[in-house]
């Protein structure tokens, strides 16, 4: 229930913050995208529906209206509270990934903000210098240990999704997420989505100027999924990067 896919707003221009790299991975043999996208025909239809109709006429105006007319202290408190609900799941998932230090940060942030921070509305832990780490889902944890993304999907009124993300229902088994009923989960989904959609507004032109916005969003989304799962680059790529670094150090002196 809690993990209903990415929020409708989150699906709009998702991950365009990293869209400066507009190159698309291709298969050297035929120039085709290497993404696992067996339902591309259906996905493109859903892309048009989500991004050409739902976003400009519903998601974008609602998100911008929420940000413009809700006092910033109220929005900040709500965002802190909702983020705090995810901390316990991130503790477990970071432990599964072998990130002990990050897991401890999530744990400390949860108990401090839940108690001293009035159920998380005030980020007391942040004031004490405890780093706010990116939340990790169960799908990130299994991806870290070699489970692939699986087929890519563009879901109506939801947006980009991968089969691996279906495992994120596990996160809803931990308190306090397990205490949310259906409508509370919908509220969390919508509020977080509006904040995310509004924050991406300055980057709208990146997707508008792309020759194929569907492919651009798909590739960035899949790269982001691997980044969240902390999937290591293939060994050959790491070797090439090391050789390039060595070449630059030997042949270029910027001092």
Automatic annotation (TrEMBL):
One cellular component (GO) term of this entry: membrane
Gene Ontology biological process terms from the UniProt entry: intermembrane phospholipid transfer
InterPro entries attached to this UniProt entry: MlaA
Tagged with keyword Zinc: no
Residues spanning the signal sequence: 1-23
Record keywords: Lipoprotein, Signal
Superkingdom of origin: Bacteria
Family classification: Belongs to the MlaA family.
PANTHER family named among the record's database cross-references: INTERMEMBRANE PHOSPHOLIPID TRANSPORT SYSTEM LIPOPROTEIN MLAA (PTHR30035:SF3), LIPOPROTEIN VACJ-RELATED (PTHR30035)
UniProt protein name: VacJ family lipoprotein
UniProt source species: Vibrio agarilyticus
Lineage: Bacteria, Pseudomonadati, Pseudomonadota, Gammaproteobacteria, Vibrionales
